[in-house]
Amino acid sequence: MYTQSFSVPDDTGQKIKAVAAIEPPELMAKFDARIDADGRIEPQDWMPDAYRKTLVRQISQHAHSEIVGMLPEGNWISRAPSLKRKAILIAKVQDEGGHGQYLYSAAETLGVSRADLLDALHSGKAKYSSIFNYPTLNWADVGTIGWLVDGAAIMNQVPLCRCSYGPYSRAMIRVCKEESFHQRQGYEALLVMMRGTDEQKAMVQDSVNRWWWKCLAMFGPPDADSPHSAQGMRWGIKRVSNDDLRQKFIDATVPQAKVLGITLPDPDLKWNEERGHYDYGQIDWDEFWTTVNGNGPCNKERLSTRVKAHNDGQWVRDAALAHARKQQQRAMKEAA
Ligand code: FAQ
User: Fold this and answer.
1) In this structure, what DSSP letter does residue 24 have?
2) Is pLDDT at 18 greater than 60 in this prediction?
3) What does UniProt give as GO cellular component (predicted)?
4) What is the rounded CA–CA span in Å between residue 321 and residue 277?
């Protein structure tokens, strides 16, 4: 028998001890050959249990990030400075909700239920992106989230369009197109402010100072401290490593900051001719893990807002189910 040892969280996001997955060798060989040939795995195909669990973990964390990610910006819809900015922001926040829906649907194709995934989020067992546990303190934060947070999300998600799991890779194509609009609207909003008053310019600089380092941490721990990277890359789920994506993001963003006229808050940020990349300073990983483990500035507020929204929506789910039952009964009556 083919045996592999994995340490993966279970479907609810809880860590389980290393499990020995014993898989039928002929099925495993077929699966490996498809991965090696850069083929796609579809829901009806056989897959090793650890591959399925890894995908459930990543896709559900991603879905949770999208719906929790609606909150920091949603907070500014009623305070947008013009009708145009309000319309753009409403569209963007709705898009993030839609991304959550595509991703929960992709996770469901792996045999898990959306209700269980949401329970894991609401009980604090499941992770979501660290970045959404920081507050949005001024209007420029909305532009900065578009420029830097969506910018980082695109950098991470474009390679996921080539992920080996078909439903996830297809969902990512549409998500990336929408994220591209999000990034551009954020950058444009900041450009307008940077051509405005000194107060507006100071607001943008303050915002970028607060978000820059948090965005670099979004890509996840350094490769050497990333327990899932090697297997994720082997399976074609991850195509580019955390550190390489972080570097690509920095290299792409520094010239954009120059056009904007903003200073990125890192005295060590310098072009390194030899490496052909920007060098950068130390990320505060202790602060990152404190936030990921539930003790960031807004973790509790984000979760309680999410739980309240879910509970307030119970009547919609009940009504939809009652309607579906009625339709089914009518169809059965007509068929009888
Ligand atoms: N926050 O071994 P690795 C967005 C966890 S969407 C929290 O490197 P992996 C759109 C990781 O889960 C943003 N936890 O793990 C938007 C693991 O914990 P576990 C979300 C993090 O999976 C914009 C542990 O650390 N995007 O922004 C973070 O190979 C604006 C060890 O890490 C995605 O989810 C973090 N930043 O790589 C919405 C993309 N980083 O499960 C609204 C898909 C790591 O063992 C407004 N996901 N951890 O308990 C991925 O690409 C990967 O899962 C990574 C992590 C790269 C996030």
Assistant:
1) -
2) no
3) cytosol
4) 54
Q: What DSSP designation does 295 have?
A: I
- Which region, left, alpha or beta, applies to residue 220 given φ > 0 means left and ψ of -120 to 50 means alpha? left
Q: Which residues contact 205 (CB under 8 A, 6 or more apart)?
A: 262, 263
DSSP helix/strand/coil, 207: helix
Ligand 1: which residues within 6 Å by Cβ?
Answer: 9, 57-58, 61-62, 65-66, 69, 96, 127, 129-130, 145, 149-150, 153, 156, 218-221, 226-229, 232, 238, 242, 292
Radius of gyration of the chain (CA): 22
Cα–Cα distance for residue pair 131/65, rounded to 1 Å: 9
Asked if 220 and 292 count as a contact pair (C-beta separation under 8 A), the reply is no
Segments making up each domain of the chain, as ranges: 25-296
Residue with CA closest to ligand 1 atom 28: 220
| 70 phi and psi angles, rounded to 5 deg | -70, -20
| Residue with token string 């604090």 | 124
Fold classification of 25-296 is Ferritin (1.20.1260)
Q: Are 120 and 56 in contact (CB under 8 A)?
A: no
For residue 323, the model assigns a pLDDT of 97
The residues pairing with 278 across neighbouring beta strands, listed in sequence order, are: 271
For 178-201, write each residue's pLDDT tens digit: 999 999 999 999 999 999 999 999
